[in-house]
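cron nightly-structures :: item 1 of 1
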Amino acid sequence: MERVKFVTHKGKKILVEDFTQLNPGAEFNETLKIAQGMIAAEPKGSVLAVFDATGCSFNSEMLDQMKKFTSANAPFVKKATVVGMNGLLQVALSAVSKFTGRDFTTFKTREEAMDFLAEL
């Protein structure tokens, strides 16, 4: 399954980062690496992204990786949205946001997030 890809939604190019149901381990690490490469290949300030963490679980190592990932992507991302945040995932997102100084708009569904990004 292709977890990271650009799609066109209502005429806008949006990066979909599908981390649904991922747990700590090799697949999470590989998906993060792929996303990092795709984002860094784009012009600065141009990426519209949806990070879907529905059903994902985090540990402290993954949280550290997300902080590094988010910091490295900052110059390239115009706006990032997050889907599937509840409970501990919301706490993790807050920690990443505070660490990186980046704001994320959260949505209940991927469709809502993509609609929001398409309006930018």
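cron nightly-structures :: done
The longest strand covers residues 12-18.
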